[in-house]
Specification:
Blueprint lengths: L4 H10 L3 E3 L18 E5 L12 E5 L14 E2 L5 E3 L11 H5 L1
Antiparallel strand pairs: 1-5, 2-3, 2-4
C-alpha cells in the first residue's frame, strides 16, 4: 500500500509514522521528500565482501559542497531526517531521475 501525502500527514500526527524533523513542505502527492545529510561512507576497496568489514572512509561535507565520484566509486549517504514506524514498512529511494543515472 502506498500512502497519499494527506495520509502521511495524518499518520505522522497520530504517531504511526516518525519523521523528525517533519516539514509539511516536503510532502508530495504520495511521498515525503527526504533531505540529504552531510555524512557519507565511501568504500575504499575495489570489491565489497559481505562476509567482512569492508574498509571505508567517512566523508563529512559542509552545506553546498560536492563530492567528486570516480567510475567504480560506491558511496552511501544518509538523510537529515530520522524516519520509522511500528505500523508501516517504509520504502526509501532517490528521485527516479537520479536512480536512472
Amino acid at each position: 500500500m502506498i500512502l497519499t501525502g494527506e495520509k502521511i500527514i495524518e499518520e505522522v500526527k497520530e504517531g504511526n509514522i516518525v519523521i523528525d524533523p517533519f516539514t509539511i513542505d516536503q510532502i508530495t502527492t504520495n511521498s515525503y521528500d527526504l533531505t540529504l545529510g552531510n555524512t557519507f561512507i565511501k568504500y575504499t576497496s575495489e570489491t565489497l565482501d559481505p562476509k567482512i568489514d569492508n574498509p571505508y572512509e567517512l566523508l563529512e561535507i559542509e552545506e553546498n559542497m560536492a563530492i567528486k565520484m570516480n567510475k567504480g566509486d560506491f558511496i552511501l549517504g544518509s538523510s537529515k531526517e530520522r524516519i520509522g514506524s511500528t505500523k508501516y514498512v517504509p520504502i526509501i529511494h532517490s528521485k527516479s531521475s537520479i536512480a536512472r543515472l
